[in-house]
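Researcher: Good morning. I'm working through a list of sequences from a screen, and I'd like to move beyond sequence-only analysis. For each chain I'm collecting a predicted structure so we can compare shapes side by side. This is the next one on the list. No need for commentary yet; just the structure.
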Amino acid sequence: MSDEAVKAKTGKTWKEWFAILDKAGAHKLTHGEIVKFLNSKHAVGPWWQQMVTVTYEQARGLRAKHQKPDGFEISISRTIKAATPKVYKSVANEKTRLTWLPEDGLTVRKTTPNKSIRFNAADGKAGFEVSFLSKDDDKSQVVVTCRKLPNASAAAKTKTYWGKALDRLRASFEK
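Model: Good morning. Structure tokens for this chain:
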């Protein structure tokens, strides 16, 4: 996010925020403690408290890209020229899903028709969520989110894997 954008919303640039946090000893604080400091000492809303904290942590080497408190998280999306119910069905239906996602043993944990599907992987450890958003009558956005990945390398590999899978899904509608 640009300095202009953060200054327009918070009144300070990244350099100014980093100086404030460095002076407060934020490099020795937990994520929650930094957020609490921003909440009590600076008039920024909850979303900006998180944004400033995460950006500071990443800039100071306290947090890697995609890192969350319980592991790494990635999201990847594609826009597909098809109505959301059709795209949803291509993910929800196992036979159709196997044509673009050759991964046996997935179990559905929870579904909200035409909105989201949560899966557990065959290994019982990994899981992911697929979300659907209608862009118009014949265009949909599909977002895959994977959480609790063990490290940055796994996050990068998972992001590549799902990028290719969503490309295959999109191609299945372009035939």
